[in-house]
Design brief:
Length: about 90
């Protein structure tokens, strides 16, 4: 192996070394870019979940309002029934 290394000219060794350094730098840059992309994907997922949460909150408020309206209508109907009974009792 030692004999083979002696046969490689110094310029070629330097080029190989430079190439290996460039590969390592690109791998590091690739890892950084992957982290950025992962963060952007996570940010997008968070935005989608926030949107869905707001949508559910809106739907919940609508349902609560409908329930409140039903309760008011039921109470009104019960008062009408009571009023009708009172009028009937007064007439009898």
């Amino acid at each position: 192996m030692q004999g083979e290394d002696d046969e490689i000219p110094p310029q070629v060794k330097a080029m190989i070394q430079k190439g290996q350094e460039m590969i390592m730098a690109l791998k590091a840059q690739n890892a950084e870019l992957k982290a950025v992309v992962d963060n952007k994907v996570i940010d997008q997922e968070i935005k989608e979940l926030d949107y869905k949460t707001k949508q559910v909150e809106s739907e919940t408020k609508i349902k609560e309002a409908e329930m409140k309206q039903s309760e008011v209508e039921l109470e009104r109907d019960m008062l009408s029934i009571k009023a009708g009974k009172s009028v009937t009792e007064m007439v009898s």
